[in-house]
Amino acid sequence: MIKPPYAKTWSIPAATLLGALALTGCAGMGKKPVAKLPVPDAYAELVDARGADRGRVDIFKDGSGLRFELVARGFGAGTYGMHVHTTGQCDAPKFTTAGPHWNPTGAQHGRENPMGAHHGDLPNLVVEPDTIGRATLQLVGTRLTGDGAMLDADGAAFVIHAGPDDMKTDPSGNSGDRIVCGVIVTTPAG
Questions:
Q1: Per the domain annotation, does 27 fall within a domain?
Q2: Which of 1, 8, 75, 165 lies 20 to 30 Å (CA to CA) from residue 101?
Q3: Domains in the chain: how many in total?
Q4: Residue 121: CB partners within 8 Å, gap ≥ 6?
Q5: C-alpha–C-alpha distance, residues 100 and 87, integer Å
Q6: Residue 139 belongs to a domain with what CATH number?
Q7: Would you say the C-alpha torsion 109, 113, 119, 125 has a positive or negative sign?
């Protein structure tokens, strides 16, 4: 059988291949370094009841409080309630160990409730078809650590619910089951 010319087998000595790879690595020298992303002050790795990776939320201290940068993976198109919960535990499958919404002032639930809102009440996450859920959330007047802060002695958790938050029904906005949870931890200095 005659092989066509494009089916030729090539044999390159290992020393030649390693030398070419070493030269390729040097090609980037002398260029400006890539800008480093800011390191969050805290974060939560989000998982579902099976322990599968469902995203991450990075938390940054800023001049007005805390900024949350969320990337949520594996969600179908839809609207999902999100909250900061009082306890830094995420025991599957129901994530009830995360406790209720973080509510240091004793308010009722919901940004549209005249007696609300909890500090842990967040806007809904809206995921468009065939996209990754992304959101930037601001908790004005909130501190990460210290007296009355989000991360107290038993920590805190970030929870995503099965349905949308109606923004008014106490205590949880009728947002349904807790389907994703992540324990909020501070980023090690370094």
A1: no
A2: 75
A3: 1
A4: 83, 101, 109, 110, 111, 165, 167, 173
A5: 8
A6: 2.60.40.200
A7: positive
Question: What tens digit of pLDDT does each residue of 13-39 get?
Answer: 444 434 444 444 445 555 666 677 789
pLDDT at 23: 45
Tell whether 7 is covered by a domain: no
Q: For tokens 């200095």, name the residue.
A: 189
From the list 98, 99, 139, the residue with the least C-alpha distance to 120 is 139
- Please give the residue range of the domain that contains residue 89: 42-186
Residue 83, in any domain of the structure: yes
What pairing do the DSSP bridges indicate for beta strands 125-127 and 82-85?
A: unpaired
Cα–Cα distance measured from residue 132 to residue 75, given in angstroms and rounded to the nearest whole number: 7
The reply to whether 176 falls in a domain is: yes
Cβ(123)–Cβ(82) below 8 Å: yes
Q: Are 147 and 123 in contact (CB under 8 A)?
A: no
Q: Which of left, alpha, beta for 30 (phi over 0: left; psi -120 to 50: alpha)?
A: left
Give Cα 115 to chain centroid, integer Å: 29
Q: Which residue type, as a one-letter code, is found at position 186?
A: T
pLDDT in tens, 140-183: 888 999 888 999 999 999 999 999 999 988 888 899 999 999 99
